[in-house]
């Protein structure tokens, strides 16, 4: 298996434009700027997906994500912002290392055009309530 590029960045063996970092988490600019200021926030420890990350570490990733979002709002003055996190190939995850995308948004930037052109129809409250009931028993304390 090839070396994980995000682990290489976290170890300082691969260059990245670092925006912020703590002992356990770091944020750097994505090489492919889907929107100007597109930042990735990662745990330094290798964790592939949300399914494996420790909740405390996930919280640290989100905390740094919030700080980055606030900085982007001041620095770039975007009209909006997306947080995006993908898991597994079916979810669109390209790098098998947990990461949170922080993406400044502008009206008409085209990032989510496919979804905006054909959003899913709203589900009924009964369907949503039944789905919530199926999920709740599996939430850990």
Automatic annotation (TrEMBL):
Transmembrane stretches, start-end: none
Motif (Histidine triad motif): 97-101
UniProt-recorded name of the protein: HIT family protein
GO biological process: nucleotide metabolic process
Matching CDD domains: HINT_subgroup
Active site annotation, chain numbering: 99
HIT domain sequence ranges: 5-112
GO molecular function annotation: catalytic activity
């Amino acid at each position: 298996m090839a070396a994980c590029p995000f682990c290489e960045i976290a170890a300082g063996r691969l260059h990245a434009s670092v925006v912020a970092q703590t002992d356990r988490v770091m944020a750097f600019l994505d090489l492919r700027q889907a929107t100007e200021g597109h930042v990735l926030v990662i745990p330094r420890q290798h964790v592939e997906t949300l399914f494996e990350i420790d909740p405390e570490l996930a919280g640290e990733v989100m905390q740094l994500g919030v700080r980055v979002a606030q900085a982007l709002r001041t620095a770039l003055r975007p009209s909006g912002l997306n947080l995006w996190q993908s898991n597994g190939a079916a979810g669109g995850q390209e790098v098998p290392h947990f990461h949170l995308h922080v993406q400044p948004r502008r009206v008409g930037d085209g990032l989510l055009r496919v979804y905006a052109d054909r959003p899913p129809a709203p589900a009924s409250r009964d369907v949503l309530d039944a789905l919530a009931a199926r999920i709740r028993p599996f939430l850990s304390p």
